[in-house]
Amino acid sequence: MRLLVLLIATAGGVGYIPIAPGTAGSLVALPLLPFLYDIRQRTPVAGWLLVAAILLTAFWAADRADRIFPGHDHGRIVIDEVAGMVVAGLFVPGTWTAALVAFVCFRILDVAKPWPASLIDRRVPYGLGVVGDDLVAGVYAGAGARLLLGLA
User: Fold this and answer.
1) pLDDT digit string (tens) for 63-120?
2) DSSP state of 5
3) Residue 45 carries which DSSP code?
4) Where are the alpha helices (DSSP H) in the chain?
5) Could you tell me the residue range of the domain that residue 26 belongs to?
6) 134 by DSSP, 3-state: which?
7) How far apart are CA 129 and CA 136, in angstroms?
8) How many structural domains is the chain composed of?
């Protein structure tokens, strides 16, 4: 079980990249955005269930990995970036341009941690805290990307 947790939490080992693992984790999710958009358009229930499954898996894996790695929200845990990007993708069309804009917005906001992401990051323990701040950043990034793309 430990191996499965670490495999998911590090997005297949991407979290072990020594430079900018959060950015690498976000890049893992980039091709998911057009794919998930397409699924939600063709079969909405299946698409939304897939998004829910990704988010629930992120909470589960991040919770367990946060108890394995030293300190809270260890840099090797990048499934939270995947989850945040998936949330950002809910706001934009399923194009590569939209996905790239969402990616840039997400990276900026994930690092900046605007309220309440900063509060969640500092005060909420385990998986909920690890993933929660990225979900907030994902909402802000998705809304910002939508505005930048002129879709408001």
Assistant:
1) 999 999 998 889 999 999 999 999 999 999 999 999 999 999 999 999 999 999 999 9
2) H
3) H
4) 2-9, 21-29, 32-42, 44-68, 79-89, 96-112, 117-123, 126-148
5) 2-148
6) helix
7) 11
8) 1
Q: What is the pLDDT of residue 72?
A: 85
Tokens of 69: 């790695």
| pLDDT 10s digits, 47-72 | 999 999 999 999 999 999 999 999 88
What are the residues whose beta carbons fall under 8 Å from the beta carbon of 51, sequence distance 6 or more? 36, 40, 86, 90
Say what angle helices 96-112 and 32-42 make with each other, to 10 degrees: 120
Candidates 93, 90, 89, 114; CA nearest to 103 is 89
Is the pTM here over 0.90, yes or no? yes
